[in-house]
Please model this.
Amino acid sequence: MKAKTVTGIMMTMLLATTLLAFVPIRGSPGWDGEIHIAVVGPQGWIQWDGQWVGCVLARDLVNLGPNGVDNGGDGDDGIVIGGLNYKVVLQPVDSAAVPEPNPTQGWTNLKAALDAPFSADYVIGGFRTECVGPMRLNFIDYADNKNDTTGYAPIWYIAGASTDELIDCGGTGKCGGTCTRCNYGKGRYMFRNTPMNGTYLFKQLGLGIIRSYVLPSRLYPMYGSGSQGPVKTALVMEDLTWTYGMMFALAGNGTGALPGSVYFPTIPGVGPNPYYSPPSPYSVLGPQAQVVAVHRTHPLTPDFISVFNNIDAKNARLIIQIYSAVTGVDFITTYKDRNTNAVCVGINVESQMQEFWEEHDGKNEYETFLASLGTRTNISPDAEPLSTVELWDLYKLRSGAILTEFWGTTQPSTCPIYTMWGAYDTIISLDETLETQSSWPIKADTLIPLTEQTDRLGVLGKFKYTGPSGRYHDVYCHTECLTKSWPVGYVRSHITQWQEVGGEGTMVVVFPQDQDFSRRYRIPPWVYDLETDLTYDGLVDIDDVMIPALAFGAVPGMPIWNIEADFTADGLVDIDDVIVVALTFGDYHTPWPLPM
Model:
């Protein structure tokens, strides 16, 4: 299935049967064969919903073919290999990650899908390292044995878990000698399609938006002026494996730390912490921050009152939050209920839910976090068979029916989260890859090198794998992913902020800043309400008026584009933006600088 047919495709698919039988026989009437995919994830959490719906949408797009009708394999339907039509069939697998991780049960569930009668050819999904890690070790042994005995082995494409060593430990040995870098023979059965690994997530957060933008352009001018020193910073994160590396790196080992800082000289089970502490220029956060509080909260029953009491007592003005699970809701609602005098920038998967705004009365407004995209952000208008926005809308249209069928109880339609994009694109990419072959099944020794050569346009940008000829199997991130510009276009995290736009809660992309969909980052008004003070010196004067004046006529991508001057958030700096600043000329804030 190759051609793109947009007109009528969403309504046709809505009317089509939402889910076929979960465990069908190997052959389907009218088809030449089947390709079986096990979808594994934390059933009961939104990450699973994204994985399952994304795979169902991709399956139906492939199986129905360009005409949007299931004719039982009529030439273009399904994955066409050697002129034959192969139907994509899905099997849901619970990774037993909810409420407490049970990787033993998770592997039992996955192995049942790998064994007959389903005999999965591929695995897509995997979220929560505490489950995926042990399951992965069993999987690569299983795949290796299958390859030794038959030449055919399943391949697992992770869509959810970010811990480095699940795919590539970077030569640290944390993988136990089982990643492609350390042991290609073992690790080659595993790929990651979303998100990029924890190291790059962390770099985009710490080295990217916080160190290069939020601190120097906003917080340090406000709080670090004169002799006040670096901006006091609190780290608040769930007590799960994937967050430990970020904590040690952000807080550092004490080198460069000021009195009152929190730091970690050693990393348990690893050795000395190699990271400098801020405010050292060699630290991750740089010379303008000081970590004064670190809180690791229980993943199910956090005590956020005591956390925020301590943040207030330490006068922290920047909170770096890191949450992947449900307690991210408790974090941000507590933050807003208290009108905490600090800005929040970090990772909060629950806040990626478009429905979050209405469900929690907009309490996530101004929260800033890593996300795949903002609200209906058309990252890839030329992606096939659907653009980014077309897929967003199709998910919104069909997700309620798909999840209602799966759970057996009425489920609302929702908007997609990050696991959906990777799960969907994995099947679309498989379709493209397998259709280059002349026969099915395909041996692992043939398919793995072929997959490593992937270099394609997906719904989140251009995609390829890391390492020489893709040998390291992780999501490739161009160095520009740490900057405010994105000219090359390989997949990166977008930094989004919840803002009220036209009376509705909208996730807007605030980093990168050079795209048509980019919008200016905003400080919560209860923290600082002089929004037209673009120089952050406590006074709106001619210097502030000159910023939109000098960028007059600019649109994103132009050399004179300045996102700070686009007050009307329409992607153009014009007279309306100059007037916004001019009308507040002479306004000032007292006292100044803002007290720490």
Summary: DSSP finds 15 helices and 17 strands in the chain.
